[in-house]
Amino acid sequence: MSRRKFLIGIGGIAVASTPGILLAARSHLKVGIVGGGIMGASIALHLAQAGADVTVFEKTAPASGATGKSFAWLNAFSDDAHYRDLRLQSLAAYHQLQAQMQLDITWGGSLLWKQEPEAAANLRERALRLDRAGYRMRVLGPEEFSILAPNLAPGAFEAAIYAGLDGHLDPVQVTNSFLDEARKYGARVLYPCEVTDLKFSGSRLTGVATTSGEYSLDRLVIAAGVDTPTLAAKADYVAPLNHSPGILSHSAPLPPLIRTVNEQVPVSFKQTSSGRIVGTDSSYAPETPVHRDILRGRQEFPNAELRSMHGRRILDRIATLLPGARGAPLQRLTLGFRPLPKDGFPIVGYIPGSDHVYIAVTHSGVTLAAIMGQLIRREILDGLPSAAFAPYRPQRFSDLALQLA
Question: pLDDT of 118-157, one tens digit each?
Fold first, then answer.
């Protein structure tokens, strides 16, 4: 049943009144989280640690969607100052979490290089601008590059930069670690368990219907990646996402070769702590007739041979820049569908007209999961709106729709 378009009900105003009531209510507030990816897992962890009664609803298995198919590069590359600061905060939050938990994160920085003079000039200028803004960058010459990454073969380049704050992680391991830790604080992680409907009494959320039955809830966080628009629509909110497929090739384990994330556009690659080379040679599917269907909507490769061909091509191209990976066996190729809000920025906060249904969807969800989990916990349990989320509220798309109407 769709939520009726009422003003915020009296029942939604309750908890934020006095600190004493709020603290007492924490252990009783039933919060459901739709989505067992890294974003939902981080939110679950932070809410459960703070005393909420947390249930995660995951329709397939943890990290089985965009999370498990993410390149998982932790970085703050953005020319938008507010967004860059949020990303930097999340890098710091990951360091804190790694000190508390066994998280598979490699802090090796990232290397980017350009061969064309104009692109190189733009890269140098951007690096200097970001460095002045607090996102540490170094412009490298060939000798410094070879010292930092002796196993790379970048060829002659016009400019190279090193972002020392960057890292990369194993998104499946980190997601499962978050969920395991959340369970220690009483969280329930249900899968396969698909949320099929939201239940309301007037404007107030009362629970969800799932393939495993109905559950009563006080709050619902929709952190379901590309499935977010379908669920948000059940609360009368349009969450506008762009379709964004992406492929990654994964090799069999190799001896240690690199710690950095490496990018010579269009090739990006890294080596995981398990020794696997992971990377791609295209951020987006090309706009060609053969890719017409994948550009229109979610679908899998038509056969194993085509999947293997793409995977082998990517590894061979990476090997031109990382000779030690030449001939590495292909273990698998993943095809993922990334949640990408229409304007490129997160959609986070209570949907318009409700203080019971909360949405959290973004590109770069792996980078942002750590800080978003922290801040969402404060918003839901403490009733404290975060200034960091101010530009990213769901209301902005409702306002835009009204302007265009």
Answer: 999 999 999 999 999 999 999 999 999 999 999 999 999 9
Last residue in a domain, options 300, 317, 337: 337
Could you tell me if 367 and 42 are in contact, meaning their C-beta atoms sit under 8 angstroms apart? no
Cβ-contact 358, 404 below 8 angstroms: no
Helices marked H in 227-344 — which ranges?
A: 228-233, 292-296, 304-319
Ramachandran assignment for 155, one of left (phi > 0), alpha (psi -120 to 50 degrees), beta (any other): left
Alpha-carbon distance of 237 to 352, in angstroms, equals 8
Confirm whether 392 is domain-assigned: yes
Q: Considering its fold, how many domains does the chain have in total?
A: 3
Q: What is the pLDDT of residue 291?
A: 54
Same domain for 291 and 271: yes
How far is 41 from 356, CA to CA, in rounded Å? 19
In terms of domains, do 331 and 358 share one? Answer: no
How high is the pLDDT of residue 292? 58
- Whole-model pTM: value is 0.90
Task: Indicate if 236 and 348 belong to the same structural domain.
Answer: yes
Are 73 and 367 a contacting pair, CB within 8 Å?
Answer: yes
Mean pLDDT, all residues of the chain: 91
Q: Tokens at residue 285, please?
A: 């599917």
Range of the domain at 221: 10-67+172-241+342-404
CB 204 within 8 A of CB 12: yes
Q: Mark which of 286, 319, 337 sits at the end of a domain.
A: 337
Which two tokens mark 73? Answer: 């590069």
Give the contacts of 303 (CB within 8 A, at least 6 positions apart): none
DSSP 39-56: HHHHHHHHHHHTT-EEEE
* Continuous segment of H or E residues that includes residue 93: helix 81-100
> In which element (H, E) is residue 240 found?
none
Q: What gap in Å lies between CA 187 and CA 171, rounded to an integer? A: 20
- Name residue 167's beta-bridge partners: 74
